[in-house]
Design brief:
single chain; mainly alpha; 0% strand; globular
């Protein structure tokens, strides 16, 4: 099932903000936008895998071996995890958190996911 238009717009806005803030050199904020896009995408295999690809690319540009390894594993399991409904809700998707660890969902994102 595809993302609803409002959710898709929010997802794409987070990815756009990630790109723009990274270009301005605000790496922490750029990563936070990728994490938020991840939370929004978890129930949708294609977008979920795409966010992990974007996180991998971010790690590549930072020469962050830990993130590269973590994202490589997540790219492999993100699609099946979404299809099977096994993606841990709220998980921010980075290598700094457990791959199956559920996390609190920010209220603004919860409202989008519940709509």
């Amino acid at each position: 099932m595809p993302m609803k238009p409002k959710l898709r717009a929010a997802f794409e806005a987070e990815l756009r903000e990630a790109t723009e803030t990274e270009a301005r050199g605000d790496l922490a904020r750029a990563w936070r936008h990728l994490e938020r896009a991840h939370v929004l995408s978890q129930a949708y295999a294609g977008p979920h895998v795409w966010v992990h690809c974007r996180m991998f690319a971010f790690g590549w540009r930072r020469r962050d071996a830990r993130e590269l390894l973590g994202q490589a594993a997540r790219i492999l399991v993100a699609g099946p995890g979404s299809w099977l409904g096994r993606a841990p809700l709220g998980n921010t998707g980075g290598a700094n958190v457990g791959i199956l660890t559920p996390m609190p969902i920010p209220e603004d994102l919860r409202a989008l996911l519940d709509a």
